Fold this protein.
Amino acid sequence: MRGRAASVIVLSDEERAFLESQVRRHKAARSLSDRCRMVLLCAEGLSSKEVALRLGHSEHTVGKWRRRFAEHRTEGLTDEYRSGRPRTVLDTQVADVVRRTLETTPKDATHWSIRSMALETALSHTTVRRIWTAFGPQPHRSETFKLSTDPLFVDKVQDIVGLYLSPPNRAIVLCVDEKSQIQALDREQPVLPMAPGVPERRTHTYVRNGTTSLFAALDIATGAVIGKCYQRHRATEFLDFLKQIDRQMPEGPEVHIVMDNYATHKTPRIKAWLARRPHWHVHFTPTSASWINQVERWFAELTRKQLQRGVHRSVAELEADIAAFIAAHNENPKPYRWVKSANDILASVKRFCQRTHETLCGEL
């Protein structure tokens, strides 16, 4: 007995071009490219059985896509819509999970976890995870912030950012600050060096061997750093550091100093010394805004590269390592690139304040 006759495939130029392009595409779905190959071979006059043997598919599969193409042309090669499994989580349940996450806390914790929320709402932890991923709440995360209360915040930001983005001609801009109470820490037991597949290991307990304070000045144009360690960080040490900077400055250029409002920076001796040097100009950062002083970024680099994992048996060793780090940095200094204008910074602060105000008003 003979079965039903196979559909005859005749391709137009546009259809052939489309099918061949799908076969050549690297990112095309494998199922679609296989169907296009079947139709192309069928158009060459091969039977469904011959196409199946050549491509490694069953004769039934080739016959199915031959008929689909004959009836619907290229649109018939795509998969039909499938409704899928019916939803088991209602919109009200999703809204309840989001509301509980944002507005409540568990009895025994400060924030929800996936499993505690699942237990509270009688849903699976995978469902809670999908809801949190879709709507964005992250109760396990917490960030800190500090808004400056300086009444001259706007003026100081515009002044200092203006120095960074458009410094005066033939002027030197230095960011000055101190990193106080740097501890010389030794481990109670020897540090075990790393090995293939094994990280460096050290005891979590340590021995304090004294402290030192680093005064540093960063040249924003070159990235070079002037630094000196002192046992204390009083106005006397700060004045001595300013004198060291003065000795290293070339004759002629104006010197602009960016520094914070620390009390040792404003003593009568410091003011008198600066008054005798009219070519020195001081720019104070806003209170609670150390992020605007670029030398703080360099301090972070010093901490990460030298201090965080350093082992120092004495203050002398610590100061020697700091001096070596400064010397190595100055061999190939690179300035930090300031990208935000004062208007961008102030707009960002304004948006944050508005969001905070709206949140507080919503809670009230």
Summary: The CA atoms of residues 144 and 352 lie 13 Å apart. Residues 342-363 form the longest helix (22 residues). DSSP finds 13 helices and five strands in the chain.
